[in-house]
Design a protein that fits this description.
Layout: H1 3-12, H2 16-22, H3 28-36, H4 42-48, H5 54-62, H6 68-75, H7 80-88, H8 94-100, E1 107-109, E2 114-116, H9 118-125, H10 131-138, H11 143-150, H12 157-163, H13 169-175, H14 183-189, H15 195-203, H16 209-215, H17 221-229, H18 235-241, H19 247-255, H20 261-267, H21 273-283
Antiparallel strand pairs: 1-2
Helix pairs in contact: 1-3, 3-5, 5-6, 5-7, 6-7, 7-9, 9-11, 10-11, 11-13, 13-15, 15-17, 17-19, 19-21, 20-21
């Protein structure tokens, strides 16, 4: 079997015999594809959970079909990426997540030139993590761990308010996306000194109208671009943004479902071709 055919079969085949054969392939990419295949039987997943290549075991640890017994084996794996995948798995029990929340496995992120605590971050993002473990991670010294916590829908109102004042803009940025962020928190974040935080707040459909009005005239065009994309942006705000000097902002207005036919008519003749095209396309949508 050609390598490309084997890869395709490993990923999508429901032939148990073929999957069993491919699970013994010399190529770990194919074995990993078998582990990711939703049709792979439990006995093959069990075999692959002991694979010599960690990326194969990592695929097993992240599988939503893997039985708890096999999943617990990956939780105790000596490779941190495998444990991180297990921490991210929604089938992982709460008590196990509490243990993984104290896992200090570190990987160097070359894009950021800093260490990342991947297991802790994954555990923080798991919806089954106990609140007490989440509270402990909210006090973690690493900003990326706290930023992962700040995204959790399990945060209590007082935790949201406290994290909204975090020294790290990454954490505040995550809070602006949290479903439990109240109008007061979003109003404060709309005035953040970091443009990325204001831009993320401008995207939130629950940001109060008064704050949206301020964000629509923000000095940074990226913030105004976000405001133009907000599905809750008022017709008045969109009309104002339709005259923005930045073509990306006007294009976003043309693509917003709340834009009025009158504004679309004007934008359809915009001097920028991308804006005009977006407006003409939007006009033909029901």
């Amino acid at each position: 079997m050609k390598e490309i055919d084997a890869q395709s079969a490993a990923s999508g085949s429901d032939d148990i015999g073929l999957l069993k054969e491919l699970s013994g392939s010399w190529d770990w990419h194919i074995r990993r594809a078998v582990a990711l295949n939703p049709h792979t039987p439990v006995d093959i997943l069990s075999q692959l959970s002991r694979d010599k290549v960690p990326w194969v075991r990592e695929a097993v640890a992240g599988s939503h079909r893997v039985p708890e017994g096999i999943l617990m084996r990956t939780v105790e794996d000596n490779d941190g990426f495998v444990r991180a995948a297990a921490a991210n798995n929604p089938r992982t029990p709460p008590e196990t997540l509490e243990t993984l929340a104290s896992d200090d496995m570190i990987d160097f992120d070359y894009t950021l030139s800093k260490n990342r605590y991947l297991v802790k971050e994954s555990a923080a993002k798991n919806p089954r993590i106990p609140l007490q473990a989440l509270k402990a991670l909210a006090r973690d010294r690493d900003e990326h761990v706290r930023a992962a916590v700040a995204l959790s829908p399990k945060l209590t109102p007082d935790m949201v308010e406290k994290m909204a004042g975090d020294i790290s803009w990454l954490v505040r940025n995550s809070v602006s996306r949290n479903p439990n962020a109240n109008p007061g928190v979003l109003t404060a974040l709309a005035q953040d000194r970091i443009a990325d935080v204001r831009a993320q707040t401008a995207l939130n459909p629950r940001t109060p109208a008064e704050s949206m009005a301020a964000l629509a005239v923000d000095r940074d065009w990226v913030v105004r671009f976000s405001a133009a994309q907000n599905i809750s942006a008022s017709k008045e705000i969109l009309e104002h943004l339709s005259k923005d000097w930045a073509w990306k902002v006007r294009e976003a207005v043309a693509q917003n479902p709340n834009v009025t036919p009158e504004v679309l008519e004007i934008l359809a003749s915009d001097q920028d071709q991308s804006v005009a095209k977006a407006a003409r396309t939007r006009r033909h949508k029901p």
